[in-house]
Amino acid sequence: MVRQVEFTLKPRTRGFHLITQEVMSHLPELPETGLLHLFIKHTSCALSINENYDPSVRNDMERIYNNLVKENQAYYTHVDEGPDDMPSHAKCSLTGVSLTIPVTSGRLNLGTWQGIYLCEFRDYGGARRIVASILG
């Protein structure tokens, strides 16, 4: 059986945000075993799984991404929406717009220190839409 829900995350500023609990609050009861697939419907943010305990990881990830893909580069031609727009598209492509997480015993089967991140690459991206497909 496949169930699908679509929901909106609260708006966040640029950065890497732990959203595991917010995602879970929008989901129906999970099956005993199966998969959760998350898809974010935007091209200037991404989803990732990473450290869920130490917030310094999220700060460091922001610094790493800003160092990898810099704003205001002379070769950018897509510049009408501000200096954070083209870099946000590149960062999105590097990271990805979907995750698939196993479900075991009715719970997400994440590692002890893993959590779901919203990687917000715009200074203010606004509310973000996610489609969650639950298989099982």
UniProtKB/TrEMBL annotation:
- The organism's superkingdom is given as Bacteria
In terms of InterPro entries, this protein maps to:
UPF0047_YjbQ-like, YjbQ-like_sf
Give the family per the record: Belongs to the UPF0047 family.
Name it. Secondary thiamine-phosphate synthase enzyme
Q: Which organism is it from?
A: Phocaeicola salanitronis (strain DSM 18170 / JCM 13657 / CCUG 60908 / BL78) (Bacteroides salanitronis)
